[in-house]
Amino acid sequence: MSTEPAQTVPEGRRTAAVIPAAGRGVRLGPGAPKALRPLSGTPMLVHAVRAVARARAVSLVLVVAPPDGTTEVRHLLDAHSLSDVFVVGGGETRQDSVRLGLDALPDDVDTVLVHDAARPLVPAETVDSVAEAVRGGAAAVVPALRLTDTVKEVEPRGDGGPEPVTGTPERARLRAVQTPQGFAREVLVDAHNRVAREGEGATDDAGMVERTGVEVVVVPGHEEAFKVTRPLDLVLADAVLARRMARDSY
Ligand code: C5P
Q1: pLDDT digits (tens, 9 = 90+) for 145-164
Q2: How many angstroms separate the alpha carbon of residue 180 from the centre of ligand 1?
Q3: pLDDT tens, position by position, 19-44
Q4: DSSP string of 73-100?
Q5: Domains annotated on the chain, with CATH
């Protein structure tokens, strides 16, 4: 596989979706990079790109591909009639990949949505509600759901033995956050410039923004925006797609 230089993205459009898709997905088990694994016969990344492109607010989509896989991802998108999607190579961590995506955006993009390729089934309405909240004046917006499980804080132990519980946060105050996370562009760029690589919030862009002192707000997420991480999630994703197809054919 050869690598391609980053593409130049044309100017004149304002809300961009950046899709980090450079992860290996080791928790899913051996095989292709996670974003390229099929769901109902179509790669997860293609579902994720279509999901954000369907949103009214999104005018530009940029995929951050594995650094040694930009050509493969380009061909994959072309083969699915997604030639207007831009592709750049990613980095070692998710944080690096998002920053490389941000660097490739044209100057006149003022709102950025960051959406994990690993959340291929997010409804367009969720994407639009995040973008609208940013356009309405919020600097940083995350879709989130209330928790069904009670959560315990523990003292982690590396030896596999029972871990002592150190606290039980009040469930009503907790939210599980999803993507797309939406930002005023300069707020996200500032966070990427100021928050250390490998820092605490590195798995979550909003977490990085919080650490710069900017307020992050939450809008309702959607149960179909779950992250495909473990093998059982693939089963669930196929079931959601089958349900959508059955609905569409009525
Ligand atoms: O590993 P995790 O599930 O948290 O990854 C979330 C998203 O970040 C995935 O879409 C994955 O492809 C992406 N990622 C990336 N570059 C990395 C690691 C993860 O774009 N180096």
Answers
A1: 999 999 999 999 989 899 99
A2: 13
A3: 999 987 667 666 777 888 899 999 99
A4: HHHHHHHTT-TTSEEEE--SSHHHHHHH
A5: 15-144+175-248 (3.90.550.10)
